[in-house]
């Protein structure tokens, strides 16, 4: 229930996030769980810093420090961002840098109706729900029966069931259903053949217009989707890749030359020979004194590298993050009105900076 509202104390049944040495773990606050034999046993969560008795969390404050048998951690309220880092993976998922761009490009605000396929592990769905609630609604579809069922159970456990409907359906074959005709402000597709879903998106988007976005790993998928979007009367089609780089700023002590001798008259400065400490070759002339000063060292680290070691195997498969976004201005645009412009070039962004 803790996804729904921020609150002070942890209740039984909440999903909480254990923060431990820059790692996050989702824990369901259940005092007892069933073992493999189906017997009820005490719920003890094992970490690299020892065991956590889950029962002890009930009644303690969010944000508080908790004792483990060999250390301590902090208990945080769950957010869609933390959930994306900790959720049980049933599929590949979309991560926060792409999610933030998707929410922006879909132009979502509280009250919007958004249609999503496929649901997968529900990573994006949690962010969509937070953006459109309390009066909006997310309709999410997956043709994998078990995934659709587990996602609906998760939304229920997280207290989000009022804002989302998870349905089991092959949307490419059957569309989004008659009840969603001309109801959606936005449609999002994370499917192998998104271009097949474009006509269904047209049927679902409101008559006065809406936004479409698809997420594809291959440029061929992007090309086919762009062509279909153009044929179906979408305007403003653009393709982008979100590349995030993190700048780490740290304190570092470095030697600097004392150049004060430059202030003296010509011919009065005494130079001494100082051998280079790390390189071979002839010694260089330096002023007699060297100073040290604190400077700041900035390095750019790719986000992928940072988390690679901790990712589950399914997620280490490289996945380019290409988004197609487009606006549908009118559902009944004449073929002659279709603009001829189409830009298939992904936006280029540097993944290293010269500092
Ligand atoms: C990559 S996952 C989606 C991950 C999701 N965006 C997330 O962030 O967790 C793709 C999902 O689409 C579903 N899918 C594929 N084709 C589909 C179709 N025609 N209709 C409905 N769902 C489909 C798959 O079962 C899979 O669960």
Automatic annotation (TrEMBL):
Keywords in alphabetical order: Methyltransferase, Nucleus, S-adenosyl-L-methionine, Transferase, tRNA processing
Protein name: tRNA (adenine(58)-N(1))-methyltransferase
Documented EC number(s): 2.1.1.220
Pfam families given in the database record: GCD14
Record GO cellular component, one term: tRNA (m1A) methyltransferase complex
UniProt entry tagged with the keyword S-adenosyl-L-methionine: yes
The protein's enzyme class: transferase
InterPro entries: SAM-dependent_MTases_sf, TRM61_C, tRNA_MeTrfase_Gcd14
Gene3D superfamilies recorded: 3.10.330.20, Vaccinia Virus protein VP39 (3.40.50.150)
Subcellular location: Nucleus
Chemical reaction(s) catalysed: an adenosine in mRNA + S-adenosyl-L-methionine = an N(1)-methyladenosine in mRNA + S-adenosyl-L-homocysteine + H(+)
Domain tRNA (adenine(58)-N(1))-methyltransferase catalytic subunit TRM61 C-terminal residue range list: 71-265
One GO biological process term: tRNA methylation
SUPFAM superfamilies: S-adenosyl-L-methionine-dependent methyltransferases
Keyword presence, Secreted: no
Molecular functions per Gene Ontology: tRNA (adenine(58)-N1)-methyltransferase activity
Main location: nucleus
């Amino acid at each position: 229930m803790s996804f729904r509202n921020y609150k002070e104390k942890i209740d039984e049944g909440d999903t909480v996030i254990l923060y431990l040495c820059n790692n996050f773990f989702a824990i369901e606050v259940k005092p007892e769980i069933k073992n493999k034999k189906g017997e009820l046993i005490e719920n003890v969560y094992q970490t690299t810093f020892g065991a956590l008795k889950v029962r002890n969390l009930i009644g303690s404050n969010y944000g508080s420090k908790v004792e483990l048998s060999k250390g301590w951690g902090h208990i945080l309220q769950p957010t869609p961002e933390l959930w994306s880092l900790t959720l049980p993976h049933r599929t590949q998922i979309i991560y926060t840098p792409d999610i933030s761009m998707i929410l922006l490009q879909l132009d979502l605000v509280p009250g919007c109706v958004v249609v999503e396929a496929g649901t997968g592990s529900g990573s994006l769905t949690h962010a969509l729900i937070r953006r459109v609630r309390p009066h909006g609604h997310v309709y999410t579809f997956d043709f994998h029966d078990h995934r659709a069922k587990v996602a609906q159970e998760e939304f229920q456990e997280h207290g989000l069931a009022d804002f989302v409907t998870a349905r089991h359906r092959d949307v490419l074959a059957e569309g989004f259903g008659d009840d969603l005709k001309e109801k959606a402000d936005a449609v999002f597709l994370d499917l192998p053949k998104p271009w097949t879903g474009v006509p269904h998106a047209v049927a679902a988007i409101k008559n006065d217009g809406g936004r479409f976005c698809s997420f594809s790993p291959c440029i061929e998928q992007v090309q086919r989707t762009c062509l279909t979007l153009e044929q179906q009367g979408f305007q403003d089609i653009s393709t982008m890749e979100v590349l995030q780089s993190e700048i780490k700023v740290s304190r570092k002590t470095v030697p600097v030359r004392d150049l004060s001798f430059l202030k003296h008259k010509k011919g009065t400065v005494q130079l001494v020979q100082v051998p280079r400490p790390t390189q071979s070759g002839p010694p260089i002339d330096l002023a007699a004194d060297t100073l040290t000063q604190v400077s700041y060292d900035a390095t750019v680290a790719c986000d992928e590298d940072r988390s690679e070691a901790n990712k589950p195997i399914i997620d280490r498969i490289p996945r380019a993050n290409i988004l197609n976004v487009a606006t549908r201005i009118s559902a009944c645009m004449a073929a002659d009105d279709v603009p001829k412009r189409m830009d298939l070039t992904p936006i280029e962004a540097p993944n290293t900076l010269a500092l």
